[in-house]
Design goal:
5-stranded mixed beta sheet; mainly beta
Length: 105
């Protein structure tokens, strides 16, 4: 399981537990993960988790999607990568169901 953990005080959602497959992220209801912040577009990005690999796809957001400070349209990420949407930041963590980490909770 992969989790995104908030990396700054401005991020209104402290953790995002990613589901296998497509995870829609945005400000509007109907996304898998709703982030109530003005810098997040209604349908901001998709985070795809596939067999332990994670990919991020921007959905034409106003402020862009960033992986490790680089604006991306589509990118893969590694454990420890930063994922950002304007002033909201998360750090990717991999968590094992058999050995959960407090950093992933």
């Amino acid at each position: 399981m992969a989790t995104l953990v908030a990396n700054n005080a401005e991020t209104p959602v402290s953790t995002i537990s990613l589901l296998s497959g497509i995870n829609a992220v945005g400000r509007a209801e109907g996304n898998h993960h709703v982030i109530p912040h003005a810098s997040i577009s209604s349908r901001h990005c998709e985070v795809v988790l596939d067999e332990g690999k994670m990919f991020v796809r921007d959905l034409g957001s106003t402020n862009g999607t960033f992986v490790d400070d680089n604006q991306v349209a589509h990118a893969s990420t590694d454990s420890g990568s930063d994922l950002a949407a304007q002033s909201t930041w998360w750090k990717r963590r991999n968590c094992s169901r058999n050995r959960p980490s407090a950093r992933c909770a």
